[in-house]
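hey all, quick one before standup. I had two proteins in the batch that finished overnight and I want to keep them in one place so we stop losing track of which output belongs to which input. First protein below, input sequence then structure tokens straight from the run.
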Amino acid sequence: MTRVGQGCPSIPGGAVAEDDEATLNRGDPADEPFPLLIAVTPSPAERIRLAERLDGIAPLLLVADLDELRRLISAPQQVAAAASEPPPVAALVIDSSRSSARCGDREIDLTRLEHDLLTCLITEPARVWSYAELHRSVWGDEGRERKADVQSLVKRLRRKLHDLGTGATIDVVRGVGLRLTDHQQARVERA
């Protein structure tokens, strides 16, 4: 049980952890709640100072603001709900012979440029492609490296992937280039 405002001189804010005799005399300790000390402060230096002072007293959760605390508290409920749902079985499939992409029972047509860009990203999924590399691979222009061409094509492809209902998307790796995320089941089928 944790009480606040009891005036412990060594702990800012006066937080004191107290053992309750009734808690100690109960059965299985795994069934018992445990004390958790939560500190909210926007200062990184203050969070470090609190962590050093409160080390070993109780489990400690340090957050910058109440919004961060709310996100952390609500996360286990979301994880539990997600764990109870069956995993999606639909995979992103690029059909090269039809120049289309499908996911489950949905299918969309792709232009040649969209097909070639998506194929590049899928065939080397862990790779981050630079804009210049994508421009050379998709457009075949050796001397031209126009970033705007790639960005425009990526914007259209993101919209199509979203409409398709796949979890795959194209992410920007700042200062490096582009990569396909959630690509575990993505594949290209050639005729």
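OK second protein, same deal, sequence then tokens:
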Amino acid sequence: MKRRLQLFLPLAIFLGLCLMFYVALFRDNPGELPSALLDQPLPTFELATVKNPDRTVTRESLLGEVALINVWATWCPACRVEHPYLVDLANKGIPIYGVNYKDDQPEARKWLKTLHDPYRFSINDKSGSLGIDLGVYGAPETYLIDHQGVIRYKHVGIVDANVWKNDLEPRFRHLKEKALKASANNHEGEAR
């Protein structure tokens, strides 16, 4: 009996792999990877910024508005491709915070000076600890957070006009509307 099972084991492994590849290939959004942190608050952290190593920011520094958190690095070719579009989004008033992931800080400062800085600030995650807490697979990755700092969406890969229009912008607008309604309800309750 044991011998028979050993004969079918390679076939079972092969069929399992085929099923995994099929699911990965035909899912609705290949740039969307599941995140254990979806609908969870951003992890707590206390790290310096890239531009000003003396400035420390925390999770609370990102609260109060719907925003994007973009994981980037100078060693990442895809980050260079996406960067001009992030600059364009920032110029249109979209709040973006950076997480500079496992990078050389002088190179990161040079990048932001040369290619323009789309970030309200960029967090120096040289050790990768924040990235690990976020569940980062690599760079670039972009998280959408609500005004309370809860992760509502994760996109893996380049953010371009198509990704913004079809994936991020509708969610961004929905979260902004929700935040405005919550704020109006709070003001209404305070007036009573």
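Flagging for whoever picks this up: The mean pLDDT is 87. The beta strands are 46-48, 56-58, 67-72, 96-101, 122-125, 141-145, 151-156.
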